[in-house]
Every structure is written in structure tokens, then in C-alpha cells.
Amino acid sequence: MRKPQLLIHNGKPIFYMDFSEMKELTDIKNLISESAEYIRSQPEHSLITLTNLKNMHFNSEIKELFSDFIKKNKPHIKSSAVIGLSGLQQFVYNGIMKITGRNIRSFENINTAKDWLTSK
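User: That's the sequence. What structure does it adopt?
Assistant: C-alpha cells below.
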């Protein structure tokens, strides 16, 4: 099972969740659950997060899982970014941002995302 991890970039910790290439609902649920536990244990507006969604399977159930996950994490997040979105994923992502009231910036690659996250 894939685990979330803390990356250090420019001396700042980034909570990284790698959903790339995930196709099984169980794997996605497990990573969301483990990530939520850590995120929601952090002080308000303290956490920087980065999520990789490259080639992850999306369906309506996964969309609902992510919507709930993102909405409930909001109080603990200082800034967030996502990488790996393409085509239909971008469309679903835009819908999730509207539903959750979050503004999670999308980037083409991980280094640009990490630079942006740590520049704030």
C-alpha cells in the first residue's frame, strides 16, 4: 500500500499524496483515509500539501470521496497544489473545486508545484 510522505523543499515540509496510476478503489480509499488522519491532526492553516493524480482512475464514487476529503481538510491547509491532471480529470477537478470552495492550484510538474508551494 502506498503511503503519504513528508517532502522537504527549500527547507519547508510538504505533505505529499501520490495517487498516480492508482486504479483500485480500495487503494485510493486507503490513501485518502491515511492522509485525512494526518491532515486533520495538524493545526489550522498550517499544512502545505501536494497531490499527484497522474493517470488515476476517476468515477463518480471517487469524485465524491475526493470532494468530502478536500472539504474536510480545508481548515488545516495553508496552501495546496496538484499535479498530473489531464482531459477528463481536469474537468472533474474543476467541479470538485466549485463544490468544496477550495482553490488548489494545478501544475504541469512536481518541481514547479513545490517551488510555488514553498514560495508562500
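The domain at 5-118 is CATH 3.30.750.24 (Transcription Regulator spoIIAA).
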